[in-house]
Write a structure and sequence with these properties.
2 domains; six-stranded antiparallel sheet; 10 strands; Arc Repressor Mutant, subunit A; Jelly Rolls; alpha+beta; four-stranded antiparallel sheet
Length: 213
């Protein structure tokens, strides 16, 4: 099987592509087949040539959580190759997935001896960190949103005539933050998101209408 790596990795320098071609082995995985499993000690690095793969984990309730997708021109598995620890995620193939697989020693040689790829690698790590930070922030916000929503329900009253749910004297953001043990900035962000979603509406004075939380 002949695969044009120059077309797939068009942003890679030619010497990097040549190295990957020489040192890698081709592996093909079918739809739904496991490529990596969390906890494995395999330290190879996988460059996607065709098809697609996805990284997933399992929540406490057993539900599958997809948190990364790998398309042609990207790679995965680099963390274990660098720190020598076990795999942190499970990766499965989506449809037929073609991969160029580099051994740990070859990948580390590539990182340490090809400055152009070292830059690509650093950018990938930065991307991983940024995505992780966003996910941590989102999880934090979800917990804060639930607490704020519960407090808004507690403070609200329902008009028996028209069914409108209202808070007549909404506490300040500072009071909300102190009473719930969260930062004022988090309260601001949650209120902003709830307003944009049409869940709440601030009106004159310190009054708020609750639509749906």
């Amino acid at each position: 099987m002949v695969i044009n790596m120059e077309a797939v990795f068009e942003k890679y320098p030619s010497n990097v592509i040549s190295f990957i071609q020489r040192k890698s082995s081709l592996q093909i995985f079918t739809d739904g087949q496991y490529i990596l499993r969390a906890g494995d000690f395999n330290r190879d690095v996988f460059f996607v040539l065709g098809g697609k793969a996805k990284a997933l984990d399992y929540g406490e309730n057993g539900k599958v959580v997809n948190y990364a997708e790998f398309v042609p021109g990207t790679f995965f598995g680099e963390l274990s190759s660098i720190d020598g620890l076990c795999r942190s995620a499970t990766v499965v193939a989506v449809k037929e997935c073609k991969l160029a697989v580099l051994l740990e020693k070859d990948f580390n040689f590539l990182v340490n001896n090809y400055a152009s790829f070292n830059k690509i690698f650093i950018n990938k790590l930065v991307e991983v960190i940024r995505v992780s930070n966003c996910r941590i922030s989102d999880l934090s916000l979800l917990g804060a949103r639930q607490r704020i929503s519960d407090e808004l329900h507690r403070l609200s009253v329902t008009d028996p005539e028209n069914g409108i749910v209202t808070i007549h004297d909404i506490p300040t953001q500072e009071v909300f933050a102190e009473s719930l043990g969260i930062s004022r900035e988090t309260v601001i962000r949650v209120f902003k998101k709830l307003t944009e979603q049409g869940a709440i509406k601030r009106i004159a004075g310190r009054k708020m209408i609750i639509y749906q939380l």
